[in-house]
Amino acid sequence: MTDDEFRELIGEVKRQLVSVGLPELADDDRYRIGEGVESRLPTPQEQLAKMLAAFERVIAIHDRRTITDAMNRIADATDGPAPSGAVIVGLARGGEEASEVNLLDAPDLGEVRASTHELVGQLLETPRER
User: Fold this and answer.
1) Of 20, 44, 49, 120, whose CB has the highest number of CB atoms within 10 Å?
2) Is residue 3 helix, strand or coil?
3) Which of 26-35, 76-85, 112-121 has the lowest mean pLDDT?
4) Residues with Cβ < 8 Å from 82, sequence gap 6 or more?
């Protein structure tokens, strides 16, 4: 693929990231190499791989497998009963009740994570055309 083709894909990935509420992952500044006036963007191929890797990390946060793996590690490292669940309780604001999120209700995103990881690997291995 050429740099221009990678740029087209970057544009589409940016649109999709913004549409799913992840505009910070679409920001070019996140992928800059170096600091100040010396900073530059990586090659389009590398930038696309970095964007998808960042998306993969976000997916991991929302994957049920991540919480079950963490609960298993806690159980292995402690004495007594293993944790049976994980709930995040948000702060109550402006007279509203506190919200609760049961992390075990998260979807299993393992297949999506694996596919994204594989795609990133393929991007990094593919010779690029200029």
Assistant:
1) 49
2) helix
3) 76-85
4) 71, 72, 74, 75
